[in-house]
């Protein structure tokens, strides 16, 4: 009998578990920790062979977080915060994966996680008020609650390009990268997509490849990361100030990141002063560029001043004027797709072995056995990297056959887009929760009542270089 049934004393059919959690990324691991702390019986199913989710799958060259590591880390255990030493301002993927494994071991999470097991379906039994959860090993278990910690960027999207399967070289997806190192030395490499994963990997691949061709549909805004080793003094500063940093990020920050909140709008300053402020933040680097002023996300004229500044920077860095123009984003206001951060992304296009191809004006027609064929001609390659992002937000949920009251499927319910209460629950699917670590309660959101799903959609689309899902 589950703990919940023994507490309530109700005579219901016994559920195998109080809670089934789907996914062992950061969200699923934390969920397990908390639920176990409540005395509940929990089974976590993870389709990968290890913990870490995003950081288990995204092993492409250059992969790292773009929220600073001292903030992009768990806050639930003060001991954990104090004992883990992040090496760099933005830790690389292997280090974040090591951290996830450390957390799993430190809090003894593994015994309740079943790896290499995909949840295929979840069906609500109305008479018993239980969920029946079926997994890829053909087994079915029952649970009172199901928590989908399936991730918003976990369903790698392979583009539907004619001939892709006929390509003779190796094809890699950034979101499903092999576990063994990939060596591009001496190869002609093509990268399709220019979202965050591409922006991180292109400079690293360019150093190995004999030639790199980057196929761009939409140019993205990117700010220099200014990554560097963290000093012990910097780590100690964070540790000393963690209570306030975490509180601020949760309760006051607009995007969950600790930064100062400006009290001025972009048009309150004259040209020189404004430029100096943008320049200082450009030199500082990172995602806080949008918080130079308080109205960049609210006022298009204000936003234009920041967008123009970044476009000018791109023109300064990239020597070839045609390439620079193509790399300057003009299709959206800055910050309306999540800004990327990079290390030498734009400068990489000054290398003699790197070519940028604009596939908006010159679309890809097909992949042949040895080339990417565009309207204007063939680009011969030996290896292809699909940096084409994810079927974001709902992709991994939609892949599970979820049936609620009256046999209605969640995909039917969400046919016109996800409809939720606070991004957490959907009517007709009792005791089924959707969680994702990208959703943070923000003060203005609580006031407006906007759903969390909407906010998340608005903030992470730069991963969707091909799909532009949201
Ligand atoms: C390259 C990259 C960099 C990022 N950098 C940042 C950053 O700096 N800051 C930030 O805030 N966010 C960042 N993100 C977003 C990141 O996804 C979240 O920060 C966080 O890691 C998500 O955790 P999660 O547990 O919600 O989901 P995930 O880490 O995606 O984990 C979900 C897990 O569920 C599993 N799963 C899915 N469906 C099933 C199923 N049916 N059965 C079994 N298992 C299933 C998946 O295999 C996966 O392991 C980044 C994302 C990417 C791709």
Q: In summary, what is this structure?
A:
This protein is of the alpha/beta class and 470 residues long. The protein has helices at 3-8, 26-37, 54-57, 78-83, 93-106, 196-208, 232-251, 271-284, 300-317, 321-327, 345-348, 395-398, 410-413, 443-448, 452-459; strands at residues 17-22, 42-45, 113-114, 119-125, 130-135, 140-148, 170-173, 188-192, 211-216, 222-224, 340-342, 354-358, 364-367, 371-374, 377-380, 383-386, 401-403, 432-434. Helix 9 (300-317) packs antiparallel against helix 10.
What does this 3D model show about the protein?
- The protein starts with a helix and ends in an 11-residue tail after the last helix.
- The chain is an alpha/beta fold.
- The protein has 15 helices and 18 strands.
- The longest helix has 20 residues, at 232-251.
- Helix 9 (300-317) runs antiparallel to helix 10.
- Helices cover 30% and strands 17% of the residues.
- The model is unreliable at 438-470 (pLDDT under 50).
- Strands 1, 2, 3, 4, 5, 6, 17 and 18 form an eight-stranded mixed beta sheet that branches. Strands 7-16-8-9-12 form a five-stranded parallel beta sheet, with helices on one face.
- A hairpin with a 3-residue loop joins strand 13 and strand 14.
- Bound molecules: flavin-adenine dinucleotide.
- Flavin-adenine dinucleotide (FAD) binds next to helix 2 and helix 3.
